[in-house]
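Q: I have two molecules that I believe assemble together. Could you output structure tokens for the complex as a whole instead of separate predictions?
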Amino acid sequence: MCQLLGMNCNVPTDICFSFEGFSVRGGKTDDHRDGWGIAFFEGRGCRIFIDEKPSVTSPIAELVRRYPIHSTHVIAHIRKATQGKIALENCHPFRRELWGRYWVFAHNGDLQDFDYQSTGVYRPVGKTDSERAFCLILETLQQKFPDGKPPLDQIYPVLKEIADTLSSKGIFNFLLSDGENFFAHCSTKLCYIVRQAPFAAAHLIDQDLTVDFRELTTPSDRVAVIATTPLTDNEVWTPIQPSELLVFQDGLPLKFD
Amino acid sequence: MCQLLGMNCNVPTDICFSFEGFSVRGGKTDDHRDGWGIAFFEGRGCRIFIDEKPSVTSPIAELVRRYPIHSTHVIAHIRKATQGKIALENCHPFRRELWGRYWVFAHNGDLQDFDYQSTGVYRPVGKTDSERAFCLILETLQQKFPDGKPPLDQIYPVLKEIADTLSSKGIFNFLLSDGENFFAHCSTKLCYIVRQAPFAAAHLIDQDLTVDFRELTTPSDRVAVIATTPLTDNEVWTPIQPSELLVFQDGLPLKFD
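A: Yes, here they are, computed for all two components at once.
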């Protein structure tokens, strides 16, 4: 299994503090050492850093911890391999283009009875159940809305149906974004926190590190951080309920159910 | 306009030496300072580093210069913007998936009379003529061979025809690879060198740096480096002829014409 980290904000923000705590779970405070990855949306652009090395020792992870990249939509993943060997092509997040936008996907879980063989235009490159699920999601959306991106209220029920179907085949916690919408689906375990004024200090669980957000923010900033398990020990994280699909917008969760 | 750098080898090799010389053209020895990028294939996996900052000052380019990533198929690009603003989504190389493999593309040139509007499954995210050309290439290949990747001798004439057509609309030097085949098309300016035993020392044009490949290679190693203009001043680079489309395999150019 794996762990997920996501961030959605109303202004571009760096994820260095959260990634600092998250990435040590990739081989130090936890055993998710079979690769890692992180995707940053910057406007329509998107860059992904991936490595099959553990995130605690990867020189690329070290760069991500030290070099602040400001983004409104971030998805990160540390891997503990279930399906698919330790290899670059099996590292999350995965990225494809749909409707002239990049879509990024990372999965925590294991889909045991899922032997989807794509014959469409989205085909997996690696051998994970996760990438197969991502291809199915995009293939379904593309076939349902071939002309272009529809409004969110039309995408949501299609995505919810796929999420429900795949959750019946195993564990299917995922983060999905196109840099405009940010989806977080809980099948078993996922939680979030919204940081906004009045800001306070936060202390990591996995490292003895404290950041005082009062020194780094303006009163109108709002940041949602989504993670498999809480990253800080002095803040209240909200569990997402099993089978819940949240959409984050400007750092706040919206509910469509 | 821009500059291209490619590498194709028979064993995974790092590109640190060539990238050292190439990347200083992104703002120091030349003025290609509007972003840069590099793609490494590792088996079926592929990772891309891109940045809209000049390659001479980008912290990510610094990582690529210092951290040896071993790959058999590498495509790099430094940008001087013609079409499309300076932004992450307009940085080369671009990547899409076709037939269950990643395809990577970088372009040097300017297609003036090219207003292709994709209505298919490959749509540009950014605003460059280059990404539009890449989408046209993949859309054409996908429609021609919808079931899966055909042999190289079937792909080649289709690609050659697109390259010829687009070259009539402006300058269209490009590098294209799926990690298995490596295509290099010259419309106006592109050259290459094949390094193999007996190896010698090479000295960069853009930096006073010499590497003695005798110390770093085994007798069976073979590496082709492809670039817009030669990177070294003590080796003989072979110009690719205008309208020539070469396929590199295990560090050697094949000709299909």
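A: One point stands out. The first strand of chain B starts at residue 2 and ends at 13.
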